[in-house]
Structure formats: structure tokens, C-alpha cells
Design a protein that fits this description.
By secondary structure, this protein is mainly α. Helix content is 61%, strand content 2%. The protein is built from 21 helices and 6 strands. The chain has a two-stranded parallel ribbon with strand order 1-4. Strands 2-3 form a two-stranded antiparallel sheet. The chain has a two-stranded antiparallel sheet with strand order 5-6. Helix 3 packs antiparallel against helix 14 and helix 5 packs parallel to helix 10. The relative contact order is 0.12.
Length: 493
């Protein structure tokens, strides 16, 4: 719908608009104290009070809510499938397949384009929005610290969750992509670069977003904190509103949504590669030679699973999954990863592995993070989230009890298998209970570099330090043809 002479979300004269829609012409005449285009109100009512009472929505917000989503009354009423969104879902998964059907060889080349285009469009939009009234107020709202809020644990819990979304620890993507690095790759340097680039990008994007919110607050005469409803629709209301103010706005709209598409593809690449690589590495005899077919089938299954999300009530399902699948299970998995890495495998052993890979020891700071700082922070955030976690809401809508229960079931899907598999493995092992647990806490016989030459170097390095491979008498070079010449400990630092 961006390929039009006039963007449909720039006016309030469409069939989906309501009587309280705020179009581009409904701006505040600050000198006279009147709101043009509004119903007459008594002069003793302040503009801010009137605006808040009407709960006015911008044309972009109404376009998103009432035209794109055709949002139903609640999760109890999924309504019909939005065929326009269904087509978009199919095209998205088709693009993902075309970019990943050859694995890392194809996705790596595509990433050069999809990872750089968003920066270009963000910068262009930011320059234009800075010229709009109210943009500076939005930026000041963004960079001005609210010190009482810094004492609010909820703020830190939300910040921790945001890091999970941005960096993706405990999701498997970082480990999967790192497994394609060379054996001597400096993973410590890479981890620092990834963190700085990711957080820096989020910080920079905040300037763009809040400058837009500042202008929207100026136009609708509302405080910046109330100008737009937070949630998944943020990117589809705040940014499109700013695009309508740009010259040749349909062209900018095309560029903007292409940017969103590339961002979505980048995120999906890592997730899908993690899933497909996991199955292929587990069943190489059956799947490695048929990677393209397996990737196609996997994308088709994901497309079918996504169909409920493109119904009129799909946004409610999306928010339930987004709220519970990420807020709880990711923290549990990340905490357990820290404990296993630091206290079961051993931080000292990991230090020796990294020294052999990079030729030098990492800083002591990393060991402090692995053993103390990160686990304490994760455990604190986990306990706080469990105690204070409230059911999600979408605007004024509150989810029913069965939907909350469904959300917790989704959250447990990635946690419950861990103790179940542990009990199963202990029951199948031989020896006393202590012997079984001791054996299962040791790495398997294939632990180490997959390349035979590098594995021999790994064994020699351990022997020089008076150490041995974890499974004595069983370690041997693998016959794997996997192109990943890396060590398994190339994990999330």
C-alpha cells in the first residue's frame, strides 16, 4: 500500500478511521489555545485534558489497528484469516528459504546487504525528522535520566530482558554461528564487538524513535509518555507517522518497510540456522545430503504454525508467546549455562581452551563474569521476574485465565525437558548413583576440535599441562565431514 500517490495512513477519511482519529491537519493552534478539527469544548478545559479524554489515535495507529490487523475483541475471538497477511507470511518464509537453502554459504552473503541497509535508512529518517517541531523535546525526554526510576527494580528487569532480545544469548544462534569460525578465531574480541555494536545500534535507534514521538506529542498535545501505546505495534505506528511528513513520502515508506523486512530476515536467519543445523548435526546420515529439501520442509512447517498469527486475533497470540517464551525460559537457560560452564566444565579448563585457540589468556575479568557477576545478576533477575511477573495486557484488554495458563505452558516447553532428560540419562547409565552422575557430568568422547590435526594439537596441549582429554581412553579423531572446524566451547562469552 506504499506504492500510492498518497499514503493511506496519512489521513482520517478512510473507511477504517474513527471519530477520534488525529490526522496531519489536526494540529494544535498553540497561540489561540484551540484544537483545530476537534469537536467544540468549553473554553475552561485545557487542551491536554481534552486530548487525554478523547484518547485520540493517530491515523497511522488506526491504520495499523483497524485495517492491517482488523483486531478482534480478544484472544477468545480469533476471527478470520487476513489473507493479505497470509500472503506476506508466505513471501517472508519463501525469502528465508531462498537465503538459507545452502546454509551459511548463502546466508552469509545476504547478510552483507541486510545488515547494512537499516543503518542507512535510520540515518536518513533521523536527519529529516530532526527538522520537525517537537523532535528535540523527544530527544531530551530520551536522554534525560529519571533518577527515581533507576531505583525501580522493574526497570533493570526490563533492561535485562531487552538485552536478551538484542544479543540473543541462550537462544542458540550465537553458538551456531560461532561454530563456523576458524579454530584460532579470537572469540573474545568478537564477543566485545557484538555487544558494542548491538547496544550502540539500539541506543542510536532510540534517538530516531523518540524524535518521532516528540513530534507526535507536539501534534496531538499529549505528554510524550502517553503519545503512543507501547507494544508490538510501536514500529508500525510511530515510524509510519513520521514518514508521512517526508517529501515523496510513498518512496520513503517503501524504503522503511524494506528496512523492516531486512531486519526481520537477519533475525530469522540465526534462529532457523540454529534449528536446521541442530537436526542435521544430530542426524547427518539422513539429512546432510538433503539439506535443501529439509530446509524447505522446515520452512513449510513454520509457515503453517504461523497461520494463527495472521488471523484477526493473531496479535493477542503473538503477545502471549512473546511475553512468556522470552521473559522466563531464556533467563533460566542462561543461568544454567553459566553454572555448567563455570562450575561443572570449569572456568579454569575453559581458560586453557581459549588460550590454545587464541594463543593468549583472556583477561581475569571474563572469569569473574562467568563465575560470579553474570550468574548473580541472572539469578536476581529470574527471582524478581517470578515474584513480580504480571499477566500481559494489550492496551486496555486483559487476557483470560486460560490464555495465561497457555503462556506458562509455552514457557515450560523449553525447561521441562531438561530435568526429564537428566532423569532418563541417569536411569540408563551404569554404576552407583554417584558414579552415574559423575560420568554424565563429563564431556563425551567426541569433545574437542572436529579436525583430526587440530584435535591432535588439542591433546598435545593438554598433555603439556599434565591434563588429559575428558574421556580417557575413548577420545579419538572424528571422521566427521562437517566443515565446521571449531571447538565446541566457542560459546556465548
Amino acid at each position: 500500500m506504499s506504492f500510492t500517490s498518497k499514503l493511506p495512513w496519512s489521513t482520517c477519511d478512510n473507511w477504517w478511521n474513527t471519530g477520534t482519529c488525529s490526522s496531519l491537519n489536526d494540529t494544535l493552534d498553540r497561540s489561540s489555545g484551540n484544537l483545530s478539527g476537534w469537536t467544540n469544548y468549553s473554553s475552561d478545559s485545557s487542551n491536554a485534558t481534552v486530548a487525554k479524554a478523547l484518547r485520540r489515535m493517530t491515523a497511522a495507529e488506526e491504520f495499523w489497528q483497524f485495517n492491517v490487523l482488523e483486531l478482534s475483541s480478544g484472544i477468545e475471538d480469533l476471527g478470520r484469516i487476513r489473507w493479505q497477511l497470509l500472503v506476506c507470511l508466505f513471501v517472508a518464509w519463501l525469502l528465508v528459504f531462498l537465503c538459507l537453502f545452502k546454509g551459511i554459504k548463502s546466508s552469509g552473503k545476504v547478510a552483507y546487504v541486510t545488515a547494512t541497509i537499516p543503518y542507512l535508512f535510520l540515518t536518513l529518517i533521523f536527519i529529516r525528522v530532526l527538522l520537525l517541531p517537537g523532535a528535540v523535546d523527544g530527544i531530551l525526554f530520551y536522554v534525560t535520566p529519571d533518577f527515581p526510576q533507576l531505583l525501580n527494580p522493574k526497570v533493570w528487569a526490563e533492561a535485562c530482558l531487552q538485552i536478551f532480545y538484542s544479543l540473543g544469548p541462550a537462544w542458540g544462534g550465537l553458538i551456531t554461528m560461532a561454530s563456523y569460525n576458524k579454530f584460532d578465531n579470537n572469540c573474545v574480541r568478537d564477543s566485545i564487538i557484538v555487544c558494542l555494536a548491538c547496544c550502540g545500534t539500539s541506543f542510536y535507534a532510540g534517538f530516531v524513535c523518540f524524535s518521532i514521538l516528540g513530534h507526535m506529542a507536539y501534534s496531538s498535545c499529549l505528554p510524550i509518555s502517553e503519545v503512543v501505546t507501547s507494544g508490538p505495534g510501536m514500529a508500525f505506528s510511530a515510524y509510519p507517522e513520521a514518514i508521512t511528513k517526508l517529501p515523496v513520502s510513498p518512496l520513503w515508506a517503501v524504503f522503511f518497510f524494506l528496512m523492516l523486512l531486512t531486519l526481520g530476515l537477519d533475525s530469522q536467519f540465526g534462529m532457523l540456522e540454529t534449528c536446521t543445523s541442530g537436526f542435521i548435526d544430530e542426524f547427518p546420515k539422513y539429512l546432510r545430503r538433503h539439506r535443501t529439501v529439509f530446509t524447505a520442509v522446515f520452512c513449510a512447517i513454520q509457515f503453517v504454525i504461523g497461520i494463527p498469527f495472521v488471523t484477526q486475533g493473531g496479535m493477542y497470540i503473538f503477545q502471549i508467546l512473546d511475553w512468556y517464551a522470552a521473559a522466563f525460559s531464556a533467563m533460566v537457560i542462561a543461568f544454567l549455562e553459566c553454572v555448567v560452564l563455570s562450575y561443572i566444565y570449569g572456568a579454569d579448563q575453559l581458560y586453557k581452551d581459549l588460550e590454545m585457540m587464541m594463543g593468549k589468556k583472556p583477561s581475569l575479568w571474563w572469569k569473574m563474569c562467568w563465575c560470579f557477576i553474570t550468574p548473580v545478576i541472572m539469578l536476581t533477575m529470574l527471582v524478581y521476574s517470578c515474584v513480580n511477573m504480571a499477566p500481559p495486557t494489550y492496551g486496555d484488554y486483559e487476557y483470560p485465565g486460560w490464555a495465561i495458563g497457555f503462556g506458562w505452558m509455552i514457557a515450560m516447553c523449553s525447561i521441562v525437558p531438561m530435568p526429564l532428560v537428566a532423569v532418563y540419562r541417569i536411569s540408563r547409565a551404569k554404576g552407583t548413583l554417584n558414579q552415574r552422575i559423575y560420568l554424565l557430568l563429563r564431556p563425551t568422547e567426541v569433545w574437542g576440535p572436529s579436525d583430526p590435526t587440530l584435535r591432535l594439537m588439542y591433546s598435545s596441549s593438554l598433555a603439556e599441562k599434565g591434563l588429559r582429554l575428558p574421556c580417557v581412553g575413548k577420545d579419538r579423531p572424528t571422521d566427521s565431514t562437517d566443515p565446521k572446524q571449531s571447538v565446541a566451547i566457542n560459546s556465548e562469552l
